[in-house]
Amino acid sequence: LRILINSSPLWLACVALMVQSVISTSSTYRRPAPGGEGKRTGLMERTLILLDVNTRSPVQVLNDNFLSLQLDPSIIKDGWLDFLSSKRLVTLARGLSPAYLKFGGKRTDFLHFHNLKNLAKFRGPGPDYYLKNYEDDIVRSDIALDKQRGCKLANHPVMMLELQREKAAQMQLVLLKEQVSNIYSNITITARSLDKLYNFAECAGLHLVLGFNALQRNPDSSWNSSSAFSLLKYSAGKKYNISWELGNEPNGYRSMVGQTVNSTQLAKDYTMLRTLLQSVRYYSRAHLYGPNTGPPRKNAILLLDGFMKNAGSVVDAVTWQHYYTDSRVTKVEDFLKTRLLDTLTEQITKVLKVVNSHAPGKKVWLGGVGPAWAGGTNNLSDTYAAGFLWLNTLGMAAMHGIDVVLRYSFFDYGYTHLVDQHFNPLPDYWFSLVFKRLVGPRVLAVRVAGLQRKPQPGRVIRDKLRIYAHCTSFHNHNYVKGSITIYIINLHRSRKKIKLAGTLRNKTVHQYLLQPYGADGLHARSVQLNGERLLMVDNETFPELKPQTLRAGRTIAMPPMTIGFYVIKNINAYACRR
Question: What stretches pass through the bilayer (predicted)?
Fold first, then answer.
């Protein structure tokens, strides 16, 4: 398919007839001559972008659980684990199913399992109310839940939630201090804690992936598996369907605890864990993921390379982590730099090169993904602006064949989560929900013209208009098989016009345009879909995601600094019919 560039300057000072003649006289872009009319102050250039998609075959086929979730073990420490049975929280998690739910993070390597039902003695200090009454409230809630059969859900009293938020706010300061200092305290996960965690995953339709503590070591530096074995026996007795992982960012153990685990030892540890799983009949065929290395800098790459050489066949998928920025990010512009967005492509390329050199075709998962590190930044990494990074992550990861992306975190302390502590969805949640509803696992190649100026030698052109295409999700019964979903990130400060060409020409389009709601602009913590604010109807009901129908042949107009999803209906794409 030949794609032409159709781009023309519009002179605002000219009359309407002149504008019409300028548009119709040229089908190629012509740069205004220096000093000419194009340099006049206040005049504006608009570029028409032609877009087509290869509908014959997908370039990648991803996991059905491509967009998945992560919970940090800190929810045990700040008390939120006891509220995972909330109807609203379960509803919000169910909205993003099917998905994996990984329970892990930096504190994975400080988790200790004790097969005890009573949590009280393991709770930290708090206000007098907590010491006298709070534990009783939790116990009464647990007793009520135990009487329920199947999925156990609760409507917690408002006062109880308010007191929990007060407690969590105090603990959040401690947790953030730990993360910034890279010094962590131990966390006890009890049988009761595991029951609550699994109940949440089961009720929400999520598959739990649990990480073991890899820093429990014997004198000879080998992994001490006693705690893991105890946990495996308990969960097998309960018939909990769980997949497993060992450790978190082993390349960073030296800076965290002054201890080093090299690739040879890590490979032995994973081999031991695989043997341990096979010794427990219920988990003899359970999935094992790892080694969960950090961003692919020198030490992490060396560790991953050695691990793949010695134990690449032991894991069912290779896991690693990526985060864009740290808590020093202080302004919106820091989230919009295309150079920052493109760091993900560079890191994916490095990881895939190592994995494919030892185990071609091995599935790769990207975990720990969030808009910022160390808890993020208030009024920034929890706002609309962070959505550009999140959607860019999903699009780039899909194009490179990353099988699963785990979002850190679904619900947590800090400012990088999808749901806040009032159980209200934040912008990234709504982006994720629309993605889940519309985007399927088959990735299609996008072809555009008019997007970039001619490359110059030695100059990297980084697009501020990012376009990705997938087959529409088969789970969405509003669209027949063969439909295509295109999602677009416009980082420009001006509107961009996109004309569907080739196989997409003259097709009816459903538009799902997501913009900030309210006067805060990119700092908004609410989102509007096609002009209507997105809000939960009640604790168990989502708002209707109503598309705006664009007539066949109409040009797509993307407002500045926005994100849009576009479903091409009834295109009967061959790649999407199977």
Answer: none
